[in-house]
Amino acid sequence: xxxxxxxxxxxxxxxxxxxxxxxxxxxxxxxxxxxxxxxxxxxxxxxxxxxxxxxxxxxxxxxxxxxxxxxxxxxxxxxxxxxxxxxxxxxxxxxxxxxxxxxxxxxxxxxxxxxxxxxxxxxxxxxxxxxxxxxxxxxxxxx
Amino acid sequence: xxxxxxxxxxxxxxxxxxxxxxxxxxxxxxxxxxxxxxxxxxxxxxxxxxxxxxxxxxxxxxxxxxxxxxxxxxxxxxxxxxxxxxxxxxxxxxxxxxxxxxxxxxxxxxxxxxxxxxxxxxxxxxxxxxxxxxxxxxxxxx
Lengths: 143, 142
Prior knowledge:
The complex is a heterodimer. Chain A is an alpha+beta fold. Chain A contains four helices and six strands.
């Protein structure tokens, strides 16, 4: 099972405050444990929403709105992708995570869809295309 | 520069409604284009928050809460990570993103820049992140 572990944004992350060396050290140690256990598939931090944008879809219309976005609770500041054998294992890892942004923080753990979850809507052709795209994308990253 | 294109959750995604075949086909075509341009790093869909949980740090204590979570606007339903040369290029690709739930349904995507390790400053810990493969996408088991 794969999980996306989302670090919720805070006032500090939205202000572009960078983690302290001690926070980086604690996170680095945790990341090393995740890698050693072959749990970590990806992990990244996001810049403040002031450096981003939103695209709204309404019928055929596309509207681009530049950041920053005020509702900090709706924003995310970073994420991991983990591979574990069960939800319980993901919970155990999440509980060992150092406090990600400082005094008050929140992680949200969400299960990732696998191809089999989509049923008949993911036709054999689409399924083939999906696995080919993943393989090609991985190959490109190794070059 | 790397950007994360985030698809916001809706009542339908939170209800676990499977995507329509036409949407899956449009998504597959779009990601095919990204691969052809050598820009796709990752993409995934998330199951409803009812299958997830949250961990909160508050006043030095950690609390765990199981999903579902009511505030749909705070939730995300999927994401795509791309590597581009400029903010303008990210914008162009974002505008071409397929309507995530079909042309007839309102939706919103959010495009956010990913931190590169150099931007987090020189520090011993940053080198450890680099060794692990974070932001270079080669996670070595050690």
